[in-house]
Amino acid sequence: MRYRKASIITLSLFFLCFFLLAVFNISGASNKAAENPAREGIEKESICLLGERVESFPFYVYKDATSGNNNFFPTGIMGDLSSSDIDNYCKESPYAGSTCVKIIYKKKPGRVYRWAGLYWQYPPNNWGNIPRGYDLTGATKLTFWARGKYGGEVINKFQLGGISGRYRDSGVASIGPIILSKKWRKYVISLKGMDNSIIVSNEDKECWPFMEPLSRIIGGFCWAASLIDNNSITFYLDEIRFEND
């Protein structure tokens, strides 16, 4: 067991580097948010553009398949995943409500990356090329519920933020690797002391007076898993949301 855990951690660290490289090189909601007054004086097309201000929490990434409280979209398919592997309307014992998200990832002909992941994005298909997002300043954590079909499934990373591009996420926070249980368990990504990844160039330094780690979030939630750690994997997600204690 000790060797297996060490192996999982070693492989996950390797996979993490590969995953981040892939995310940073990808080229390409009805909970209404108010405009942020701090945006005044910032050019519309500036990389310093703040997100739409969220005034109340919880603020959902996913509540139920048809819920009007969903604010991000599962459009950021990565690696070997395809849309047919994702069921946002799954009724197999959801944690809450009438549906949950079911993901099936297994080796198939023509899939060569041996890893997969999915971002919930705002707006849909936003890889940092759209000057929009949410200003989630005030949120202190992102919580979600997850379970595996059999238990023992390894998720290398659960994350929010971290998407690259001109209008990139203003921050990133993550947990992992996580070994799932067969029963629903709650997981928490703390947003206190969150990394402000917007400062990556001299041009970005102009944004420093305006940008906080949560001031423009386009990647509301993501996961990544590898076939190195799983021969195949089926797992479920539910009640993904930002909270402020």
Structure description:
It is a single chain. The chain has about 240 residues and is mainly β. The protein contains 1 helix and 15 strands; from the N terminus they run αβββββββββββββββ. The strands form 4 sheets. Strands 2, 4, 5, 8, 13 and 15 form a 6-stranded antiparallel sheet that branches. It has a 5-stranded antiparallel sheet with strand order 3-6-14-10-11, covered by helices on one side. Strands 1-7 form a two-stranded parallel sheet. It is globular. The chain has one domain (about 1-245): Jelly Rolls (Sandwich), CATH 2.60.120.430. The longest helix has 23 residues, at about 1-25. Mean pLDDT is about 85; it is low at about 1-10 and about 15-45.
In short:
Helix content is 9%, strand content 33%. It has 245 residues and is mainly beta. It has one domain (2-243): Jelly Rolls (Sandwich).
CATH architecture label name: Sandwich
Approximate shape: globular
Number of domains: 1
CATH topology: Jelly Rolls
Please give the number of β-strands.
Answer: 15
**What integer is the average pLDDT?**
85
Helix/strand class: mainly beta
The major beta sheet can be summarized as: 6 strands, antiparallel
CATH superfamily: Galactose-binding lectin
List the helices and strands and how they pair.
Blueprint: H1 2-24, E1 52-53, E2 59-62, E3 73-79, E4 86-90, E5 100-106, E6 115-121, E7 134-135, E8 141-148, E9 154-155, E10 157-161, E11 172-175, E12 178-179, E13 185-190, E14 219-226, E15 232-243
Structural key phrases:
245 residues, mainly beta, Jelly Rolls, 15 strands, disordered N terminus
